[in-house]
Amino acid sequence: KYLETKPRVEQALASQKFAEAMLLLAGLRPEVDLFFDAVMVMVEEEELKAARLGILKSIAKLCQKVADFSKIVG
């Protein structure tokens, strides 16, 4: 889903369609939730752990293209 969504988000951003980019990112939520429910990220096998962290880092980098979500205070 990430690989399908990434170019669409980048195209929306290039066209300054920020709301569309946000909606596309929000559409990743079910898959991200399922990933955390079904996959143990911090496993002992370093190569597997690095691959799983890499997936999450890629998603985070895509989100950071839209906004700095660390600035949101609840």
Give your account of this protein's structure.
With 74 residues, this protein is mostly helical. Helices cover 72% and strands 0% of the residues. Helix 1 packs antiparallel against helix 2 and helix 1 (2-14) packs parallel to helix 4.
Brief summary of the model shown:
By secondary structure, this protein is mainly α. 72% of the residues lie in helices and 0% in strands.
Distance between the terminal alpha carbons, to the nearest Å?
28 Å
Low-confidence stretches: none
Number of strands: 0
- Quote the average pLDDT: 94
> Percent of residues in beta strands?
under 5%
- Alpha-beta content class: mainly alpha
Largest sheet: number of strands, sense, barrel closure: none
Shape: elongated
Q: Please work out how many helical segments DSSP would assign.
A: 4
Specify Rg, calculated over alpha carbons. 14 Å
- H/E series, N to C? HHHH
Question: How much helix, percentage-wise, in residues?
Answer: over 70%
Topology:
Blueprint: H1 2-14, H2 18-26, H3 29-38, H4 46-66
Helix pairs in contact: 1-2, 1-4
What structural keywords apply?
74 residues; 4 helices; 72% helix; elongated
